[in-house]
Amino acid sequence: MSAFTSKFADELIANAAYIGTPGKGILAADESTGTIGKRLASINVENVETNRRNLRELLFTAPGALPCLSGVILFEETLYQKSSDGKLFVDILKEGGVLPGIKVDKGTVELAGTNGETTTQGLDGLGDRCKKYYEAGARFAKWRAVLKIGENEPSELSIHENAYGLARYAVICQENGLVPIVEPEILVDGSHDIQKCAAVTERVLAACYKALSDHHVLLEGTLLKPNMVTPGSDSPKVSPEVIAEHTVRALQRTVPAAVPAIVFLSGGQSEEEATKNLNAMNQLKTKKPWSLSFSFGRALQQSTLKTWAGKEENVKAAQEALYVRCKANSEATLGTYKGDAKLGDGAAESLHVKDYKY
Amino acid sequence: MSAFVGKYADELIKTAKYIATPGKGILAADESTGTIGKRFASINVENIESNRQALRELLFTSPGTFPCLSGVILFEETLYQKTSDGKPFVDLLMESGVIPGIKVDKGVVDLAGTNGETTTQGLDSLGTRCQEYYKAGARFAKWRAVLKIGATEPSELSIQDNAKGLARYAIICQENGLVPIVEPEILTDGSHDIKQCAAVTETVLAAVYKALNEHHVLLEGTLLKPNMVTPGSDSPKVTPEVIADYTVTALRRTVPPAVPGIVFLSGGQSEEEATLNLNAMNKLDVLKPWTLTFSFGRALQQSTLKAWAGKTENVAKAQATFLTRCKANSDATLGKYTGGASGDSAASESLYVKGYKY
To answer: Which UniProt keywords are listed (chain B) (predicted)?
Structure first.
């Protein structure tokens, strides 16, 4: 057979399709302990387990937020955490119609002989880990591959290595009941223009789908999490319509219709930028056989974090801030966002960090 | 850039889109002199230029057929031929809204060390030839790669070589103003089941689109001419609905939405089979981001040839027969064909020839 059809095939297809439900998207709350430490540091909150738990409880119990979401990506620690009521987070999410997902990669390591390019670790024992995560309630997974644009980058080695890593991860997930989100992030760092980003994105995505085909991945049971096609961080900005046009064209040229949904990463975009760009894509009148939605981390949580600042008395306001961004992005998946979301503190703030490392 | 956007880009996109117009399709009338000789032999007609001219004139002046056709593929000799009134065929076609195309490959040769697998020739001076064909009025081209299914076939070598040949041909065409029809035909010969055909088709198409990406081919200015996914010729037949399901699934998994149209080859299918299968695909209730139409040779001409039998007094009858098949296939592209277009027994006659060589 071409696609591997495991006992989980029907479930994978149903879950992938559900995640792509128009009006819904993914909250990426899978920051590793180290990464969440940086976020907490920025609001002067100590990086201890209770605070990490408090933040996630704030997010998952925010009134009105869950109906805008089809999935939440969790870090391993969070998969086993409970609310202050003693209820497992995964159960809160499931009851709210939200599928729990799990980050399964183990970060990047450098590719020797390249100019700072990386590959992603995490394949060892991945099958067993996926089984455990499935038992704990996870139904999808995420693995972040990272590429960069430079004079000689991305190299053929980097493209090939990352594409094949994603493919191995994807089929192992499917063998164990988890829908793999395939994430080949091309960093925004650089002074290149949008055409260059488009060319690289098309090349990388073509390599990914060739690798997925070679590894017998069932595309109907996967999701794609790509970067939007934008100018480099050191280049002049362009309008959401231009971003939408280049992004959707790149996807039309590379992503087979069998993939049910594309859930964009936000990179270093501000909350408002990310929402406007997604909205513009969904307004574009052109062939889009996959739904276009979000899988935002920083672009959903920035204002919320600032509003919370680690204080109990701010929880309600912080939850409202989260709801505002969730609603805005939910509308953006339908192309109906009017740009009128009550802008929270920091909603327009660029979240770009040069050479960002998770 | 990823896709090469030369001076002909807009024209290529427009032409490809036009050829893919729902309700229309392609008449493949590009039989080489040798191949048309075999057809003539079957109806006891001498293989001389005037007979070849007479057959094509019969086809190209059939009343009522032009609205069903968006293109006709010609052999080089025919590109320069005229009607008995002295009008060049290409002018007649263009005036009637039918775009002339040209077969540019030079047949297959064996790949040494394989079990009878082949690659296709024709790249030498292809650019120059395309320029001449463009001047003569051609606006699209066709190149047939051939693969087979066997215990160890298609081999990785065969897939890679044929995919690369198609990609080089495609970009050279686009540099010179011709829309390339990309044809990776997987022969029906064999006792394999439909699942095996599906797996091979998906693998081959994935390799083809990877190669097209590597060679910077502008997908919006191409067409795909694949085999339908069917059981092998020595295996039990299945219904048109089953063929439609497997075929469309294979295409959804491999053909990027940027491709405007898929124009199926008929292989050894009878006229009626080919039409019913195409119809079933267009009735399938699943998202198809490209139009599905025909590029039939034998499956459009078989009954017509028999009705003509080389005799002038049969021309009107033969043309009426041709119109019947054109109309049937036009309806099939809209999912409107109700079957039994002609009571002609020839319409149901299998056109399968083992180890078919053009």
So the answer is: Glycolysis, Lyase, Schiff base
